[in-house]
Amino acid sequence: MDNRTVTRFAPSPTGFMHIGNLRTALYAWLIAKAEGGKFILRIEDTDRQRLIPGSMEVIIDTLKAAHLTVDEGPNRGGENGPYIQSERLPIYKEYAEKLVKIGHAYYCFCDKTRLEALHEEDANGGYDGHCRNLTEEEVARKLSENTPYVIRQKMPQEGTTSYTDMVFGEISVDNSELTDQILLKADGFPTYNFAHVVDDYLMGVTHVVRGSEYLSSTPKYVLLYDFYGWPRPKYVHLPLLMGKNANGSISKLSKRHGAVSFADLTAQGYLPEAIVNYIAFLGWSPKETNEEVFTLEELTEIFSIEGINKSPSVFDYDKLIWFNEIYLRKTPFEEFAELAAPFIPEQRRDFAGMEKILRLIQPRIGKLEDIEGASDFFFNLPDYDKTLYINKKNKTTPENCLSMLINALDALKGLEDWSNDGLFACLKELSEKTGVKAGAMMWAVRVAVSGLSVTPGGATELMEVMGKETSIERIEKAIAMLEA
Asked: What is the distance between the terminal CA atoms of the chain, rounded to a whole angstrom?
């Protein structure tokens, strides 16, 4: 028998891949791979009303982009398939009927009208067990009459049910609080509560990794394992993911907090590697280091369940940007240029200096979406006030900057070597000739050609990219403004 660790990621195909879903997949993957185990993808599509076409492909593509390789799944095959629940209906029927035979489930023939009336009487009461003790003859008669039915789990009515979670410890619930949940619906489809237990057992899942919202319902699931005589898996429930509200409070992470899907984040120019690295720390921390930047392979080597926290984690976009900046900076330029291409406005892609612009801004942007804004001043001089020429460090004022720009304009008009080195040599020589500090001269020129106080690159780097005509034109415009 294979004793390897086996985990699974079992999302419903109901739209985009939420960051919380991706974190669950990542932790399940890491738990398996840290032990040399197996990671299974299973699609839980039994809630037919919530299905969104194309969602399974989104899930598969997201795992691929995040480099979370699947060992078994719809796109990979394997010995435990099929891996789409709607293709496993005969399996659920077989195991539901088996549970009836061994006395831990029963046929329920209550119609919609009765159930609705029951709900109106007690909205929180659940099912009242009306069909729980029907005789074999009554059940056989109703089945022979093709009376619609569901199969319900027969919960113990006394005592407690407990299980141990590897993060939250022992969880117990009074059996009197457990209602006889539906396992198999009238249309032949199973509920989540039943299908995932059968699938996890048949697929050999050893560790069930999911959100902490399932902590209180898991006693119902472990009872199914016990009823069948199956060994329970180990449970790893993950802390909630929260988002920051405008007023400083926190609540469950949702779209109102910003982009919360993997696709939205990558569309904004966050690198998959940075996203994965960041979400690894949303509920987990390494025990023996304060380092935060890890490749997926490095995470595999240091990840342990003991490092998972109980407390909710807050998704911090500023922290994600910090991670992304690091990954962008260490990306080889040729690869960066390829990643950047879709984020460059179409009318700018043929600009001769675009490569130089990208080299200047690569170390200075938080996400690829920032490329347009960070490079805009190269193409459109922003409106700015003459107070921008005031710089205490360089002791510049609008008045002395006017003098410096007049001298710079005269020197630059006659310059033939319009390279960064040529421009730097020209302005440095001019500053020495006029008795002005080089830093002050560069400040005046940089403000004149960019209209900004902070730029990706110095004055001469910017002018090299802009070209002589644009640079001269902007300096002339600055002189006119300062003279006015």
From this structure: 87
The 10s digit of each residue's pLDDT in 207-253 is: 999 999 999 999 999 999 999 999 999 999 999 999 888 888 888 88
Residues 6+ away with beta carbon under 8 Å from 24: 9, 209, 210, 211, 238
Structure tokens at 112: 């919609």
pLDDT (average), residues 292-307: 97
What does pTM read for this prediction?
0.92
Phi, psi of 110 (to 5 degrees): -60, 135
- The strands making up 6-9's β-sheet, listed across from edge to edge, are 38-41, 6-9, 207-211, 234-238, 160-165, 169-174
β-bridge pairing 313-315 and 234-238: unpaired
The values of phi and psi at residue 284, to 5°, are -145, 150
Look at residue 122 in the predicted model and tell me its pLDDT: 60
Which residue numbers are catalytic?
A: 255
* Residues 6+ away with beta carbon under 8 Å from 299: 30, 277, 280
Q: How do residues 1-12 score in pLDDT, each as one tens digit?
A: 457 999 999 999
**Amino acid, single-letter form, for residue 252:** K
285: left (phi over 0), alpha (psi -120 to 50) or beta: beta
Angle of CA points 72, 74, 76, to nearest 5°: 45
pLDDT in tens, 410-447: 999 999 999 999 999 999 999 999 999 999 999 999 99
Kindly give, in sequence order, each residue whose CB lies less than 8 Å from that of residue 310, ignoring residues fewer than 6 positions away.
Answer: 167, 168, 239
The amino acid that residue 75 corresponds to is: N
Other CB atoms within 10 A of residue 464 CB: 21
* Token pair listed for 242: 């929260």
Buried b (16+ CB within 10 A) or exposed e, 269-290: bbbbbbbbbbbbbbbbebeeee
Calculate what percentage of the chain has a pLDDT beyond 70: 98
**Nearest of 212, 230, 300 to residue 26 by alpha carbon:** 300
